[in-house]
Every structure is written in structure tokens, then in C-alpha cells.
Design a protein that fits this description.
Elements (H helix, E strand, L loop, with lengths): L5 E12 L38 H13 L3 E2 L2 E2 L2 E4 L9 E4 L6 E2 L2 E4 L7 E12 L3 E5 L2 E5 L6 E7 L6 H17 L12 E11 L9 E6 L2 H20 L7 E6 L4 E4 L12 E2 L6 E2 L2 H9 L5 H12 L3 H9 L1 H10 L6 H19 L3 H4 L3 H12 L5 H14 L3 H8 L7 H14 L1 H8 L5 H12 L6 H13 L1
The structure holds adenosine-5'-diphosphate (ADP), zinc ion (ZN) and magnesium ion.
Amino acid sequence: MASEAYEAVIGLEVHAHLQTAAKLFCGCATKFGASPNDNVCPVCIGMPGVLPVLNRRAVELAIRMGLAAHCEIAPFSIFARKSYFYPDLPKGYQISQYELPLCRGGYVELPGNGGAPRRIRLVRIHLEEDAGKNIHERDASLIDFNRSGVPLAEIVSEPDLRSAEEAVEYLNELRSLLVYVGASDGKLEEGAFRCDCNVSIRPRGSSELGVKTEIKNLNSFRFVEKAINYEIKRQIEILEAGGRIPQETHLFDPEREVTRPMRSKEFANDYRYFPEPDLPPLCVSPAMIEELRATMPELPAERRARYASELGLGDYEVGILTREREVADYFEAMIPALKNPKSAANWVMTEVLRIVNESGKSIDEAAPPATESAALLRMVEETKLSLNAAKTAFAAMVKSRKSAAATIEELGLIQISDESAIASACEAVLAAEPDKVAEYRGGRDKLFGFFVGQVMKAMGGKANPRVINEVLRKKLAG
Ligand code: ADP
Ligand code: ZN
Ligand code: MG
């Protein structure tokens, strides 16, 4: 999107809900979808005199994310009060981390898509609590505090991204990582993964940073892409017209697909940070870090490299198969039963992901077990089943939940490879078409396909096409 003369510079601040059962500083449930203000207590609605108690699980999950992103985990970090006034923040301050965050540095590796993988450096990952949610209804403004106090990891990148597309790629990778390590469910539609986009432009070739605009609280990757592209274009127009870019905070308007400055009092950026007096410093022992490191799963970048080198899969397939951990696990569970992992890759990318996407459910809920998918493909490899018949069986299994073997039996899908049965069908077809046989033998090679089709039709589509080919070639030659 940036023109020849300018380069875009983008840094993202992502807020991801950590998947704990209880909130960050109280015992209230975090479960999404409860009735408004069902999951609240004096702590998370900021009553006077209450004391926060840190949820250990949230710390563990944030550290897991830090390890996945190659961060340095701080043995000593502190919480801070970030003060601002807004109705969804009943205490008048948010408990966050400021000067000494839990995780520092690190990077996220983006797939190369044909080129070398690219590293996007992180500034930090810190823990903080979410605010409540304002709901505006006609003449009333209502507040739901269920989200107030839900643990968040804020993941701040260096300004290493250079286009809207790359920003979306980074978000995809970050979301994958969070889900792989079990830190978050990554559900954008539930507000569990939101981001602020910082965008500036500079003359191509320059190494100085331009003045940035911050676009707040985007909760869809499509909006991120649109908002950034809009912003780049807007800034280029200002510079081209000889103007200067003011440092501003914007909101994206999804209906009109434009960004607009927030009212000035909403970005009075004086948070008066100071250390939270009600919480002791957070001390993380080397033993705790090592314990967490020992339970880390294989990560997307490692899986991508392994699928490419060991299974010979291409970048595109590898990208799709590894993005969601459960999809990669499903794929891998199919491989041992099969000669060719590529057929499993194609199967997952077409049949399995189609029904997952259509249903909007998880792979375990939407698809038959991986072993049953593998059983179908194995029969295809053994030429007991045509690929089309396997697809038909799969579609039936999605609904019936029956096994591959039972489904094939029930639908009569077994492929006939028996040579004598196929030979007699071939003979019947050739006997019924003496003129065409003569034409074929006279040189009209194209008629071969016609004969194959006729035999297949006579056998109800169940014959093994390879055997038909062989038998017909012999008979037509003789
Ligand atoms: P602020 O003090 O305004 O919050 P920070 O330095 O903390 O700014 O950076 C916040 C985010 O903005 C980071 O993700 C960072 O990478 C990004 N950022 C900082 N400067 C720029 C810039 N000039 N252009 C684009 N992104 C930037
Ligand atoms: Zn509470
Ligand atoms: Mg900042």
C-alpha cells in the first residue's frame, strides 16, 4: 500500500485474555457469556478496602507465552497502578506492569512464504487486568463488570512490521503461539484477542521513525488490515501536501472504513503510574521457569520446519496445517497409518477443514477422529476405495459418527478391483460397440476414454479405474 517513496512502520500492542478459571486478583469466574454482572465481587468492582491476591496460574500462562516468544523472564517484576477515569474502570486505576514487566525482549518468527523466515522483535510482555464493558442502549449507558479483572497478557512489538499484510501475519502467528502453549483461547469474536496498531511512515531508505498514530482496540484481523492501509494512505497524503502528522490516537470506524481521532480528553496520556502498594513484587524462581519450559509443546515454527524437511510439504500447506495446534495434531495422528503424508495433508486441507470451517466448531467436535480419516485414506492407498468414495463416506461419517469400515459397508462403497469381474464388464461393452472398437483400432485413440466411462457406468462407478485401464488396453490391442 505504501507508495514507492514511503515505507510504512508498524508496531502492535496486543491484549490477549489468559485462559484461567478465575480472575487475576479475585476468585470470580472468567467464563464468557454469563449474564451481565454475574461474575463480580468487591475486589473486581473496586470497593474500598479490598485487597488483590495474584492468581498464580495467570503468571504461569504469561511465562509460557514469554518462553514461546523467546523472551527473557524477569526473576523480579512489579505491578503498577495506571490511573485514568472511565466508567468501566471502577477503581479509577488499572493494575498493570510498567517499569519492570514479567517478560522482556524476545521475538516472533513469521513464516517465510518462500523466502527466509522473518523475526519481529518484542519489547515486552506484561500482565494486567481487563476493564469492564460499556454497553450503550438508546438513552442509557450500562456497564458489565464480568470482564473487569480478567487477566490479560499485553504483548508489545518493536516497530518491525512494514505492511498491513505483515501485521496480520504477525497477529496470526501470535495467536497461534498463545493457543499452542495453552495461554489463551484466542477467540477474537469474544474480545479475547484485541490490538492497538501504531502506524507511521517515513521516506523509503530512512532509518528514523516518523510520528505515529495509534489506532485503538481492533478486534478483527480484517479491521486491522483496513485500518492500517487507510492510515498509511492518509499519512502519505498529508506529507505529500506539505503537512505534518500530529501524534494522535484514533478509532477505526468499521462501517465507513476510516480512522478518526478520539476526543482529546480520552487520550490525555498521563497515567500517573506508581508501584501498586497492595501487591508484593512478583518473584519467579529459576526452578519455576524450568518446570514450565519442560512442559512446552512443539511450536508452530518448529513444526513448519519439520513438515517441510521430513515430509516434503510446501510452504503453503505447512502454513495451513500448523496454524492451529489441533489441526496439526489431527494431521499428525493420520500419518502413521499411511504411506504418503501428502495425501493426509490434502485430506486435512480440503475435507476436514471444510467441515470445521462450515460448522464453526473445533476439529474434535466437527470431524470424525483422525484415525477414521486415516482408515479411509489407507483404503484409497490400497485401492479398495476410490478417493471420491472416501469423500462420500467422510461426509456421511460427519453426520452419523460411525466408523469408516461400517460406513463403507453400509453405503456399498468398496471399490471392485477383481480382474475377472472387470474383464467381463469390458467384454460386454466392447461387444456392444463394434463400430467404435473398429474406429479405435483404426487410430481414434480418443475413444479409449469413452470405453473406460462405459465400463465404469456398467459397474455402478465402483470399479478400480486402474484395473479397467489395464484390462481394456489388453483387450483392445488383442
Ligand atoms: P507510547 O509511549 O506512545 O506508548 P511506545 O514507545 O511505548 O509508545 O510504543 C508503543 C508501540 O508503538 C510499540 O508497539 C512500538 O513498537 C510502536 N511504535 C513506537 N514508535 C513508533 C513509530 N514511530 N511508528 C510505528 N510504531 C511505533
Ligand atoms: Zn471478583
Ligand atoms: Mg507505551
